[in-house]
Amino acid sequence: MAFPAGLVELIETLSQHGVDQAVICPGSRNAPIMLAISRNAAIESFSISDERSAGFFALGLALHSKKPVILCCTSGSAALNLAPAIAEAYFQEVPLIVLTADRPQEWIGQWDGQTIYQERIFGAHAKQYFSYSTKSNESSDEVWHRNRIANDAFWSAVSAPQGPVQINIPIQEPFYPEKGAALPVAKPIRKIQKWIAPKSLDIATKTFIQRQISVSNKIVITVGQFPKNAAIQSAIAALMKKGIPVLADSIANLSRIAFDSHDLILANTQTWEGLQPDLHIHLGKSFVSKRIKQFLRSNTEKQEWQVNPHPQALIADPFKGLQHVLEIDEEAFLKELVQLNISEKQKDYFQAWKKADEIIAAIRAKGINDWNELGIYQKIAQALPQSNAEIHVANSLSVRYLNWMNFVPKGIEVFANRGTSGIDGCLSTAIGAAQSNPNLVISILGDVAFHYDKNALWNSYIPNNVRIIVMNNQGGGIFRNLDGAKDLPELEAFMETQQVFHAENTAKDAGINYISVKHTNELLHALSHFFQDSDKAQLIEIESNSSINAAALAQYMALFKG
């Protein structure tokens, strides 16, 4: 057969740009793409059967490598199943190069098998879309065009803000090579190089910052989701020491450096007036806490800045008061701030936040001995390693408990799929991140998130350094804590996703060591060795009662409301 034209060159171009990992979903129409990838010696290939899981697995790989990962699927609804991960990658700004095999254009809409409308299938959630011809009647223009697409796709994925791109590839039959046939040798390719110089603060920007800081007496910095960065941590510590309060979510990776108790401090609305800033500066992406957004939105008199070196085309204004977007490097901005003088009133403002934080710390320091999720999270936090580990936390209650419990040690990085905040793919992302990762990878998720994504374990890539903690409260426990939802008669039947399954059989099928925990002594015994080195991945399933958890959390929150 004539192997589909341009596929070997496409993969070779991406490889020469440094793309060295690919996730391939089994299929027929994408077989030629699979062969071009798997037979490229410079690319490590993973075969993941479930497309939804595969997308998040690729996301996890890219989070660690900081490089684009190829994601390949067959034609039809397979591509639709990648959509949740593509949306997450878009909002987290993670580079993925998605290769979707397709039927030839003339067969679209003709009731042909596995044929849907795949062009721009991810809509606004892909940075760019390309259609890649594989027809054999090559002209010099076709070769040039294919090469340009390969280079364009790479640079679009990695240019700030990074994100996913789609290359849709119509492939005609026959597309299986004859038995024993070698793939064509890649023709010489052209690698297009770009040079991107780091941004620095110009004189006009420095003057603007200096002038505004000099007339502000209540400056507060908030940090949303942000990757762990030693230089940023150092600068934030210096600002805190100087007298500028920094409020950070658990997913900001500033634990024990910035104030991380803002959600509990602001539970007492009587504190709001005294803590309101006259200048609010935001770094990073979204906040988990709804309360801090309400707090800042209620202040219409403040100035508000967003420091974002690579903003998306649409302006993000989550606090409803944005006045200035500073497209400058976060580290350069913070270092400039550290050098500036602040007023005595600013130092008093810092002390107000510090005093509020100390009150919260005193309450949180008390042990929780009853069997509920608060006590469970507290005991897990006490057992966590202090370094050489990372946490992948699921959405809904899991990520919120991390905020409420001062859960994360300073030396551990936290990842969460907060781009879309969906329940899907949390475990798959962690498994992808565990590949070629020397650190312990800890996945913390609820039972619904686990069962929704248990195909994350339906592969042969579960390394020994994975630790999975499943909080089994027999359903979506967060709804028992939401005003309005918790009192609905339909709560149990239609909102909680009540379920009676356990993780044991899934763990055993995946060759993972399974531990069941139902009371405090079992938990303490399990945690005494759970994070130690092991010849198998480990899964601990912790059972609790959703109603008791909700009552305990309500009682806990009442301590902070004043």
TrEMBL record:
Pathway per the UniProt entry: Quinol/quinone metabolism; menaquinone biosynthesis; Quinol/quinone metabolism; 1,4-dihydroxy-2-naphthoate biosynthesis; 1,4-dihydroxy-2-naphthoate from chorismate: step 2/7
Cited Gene3D superfamilies: 3.40.50.970, TPP-binding domain
Class in the EC hierarchy, top level: transferase
Keyword Metal-binding tagged: yes
Cofactor note: Binds 1 thiamine pyrophosphate per subunit.
Homology family: Belongs to the TPP enzyme family. MenD subfamily.
HAMAP family, sorted: MenD
Subunit annotation: Homodimer.
Name this protein carries in UniProt: 2-succinyl-5-enolpyruvyl-6-hydroxy-3-cyclohexene-1-carboxylate synthase
Classification of source organism: Bacteria, Pseudomonadati, Bacteroidota, Cytophagia, Cytophagales
Gene from which this protein is expressed: menD
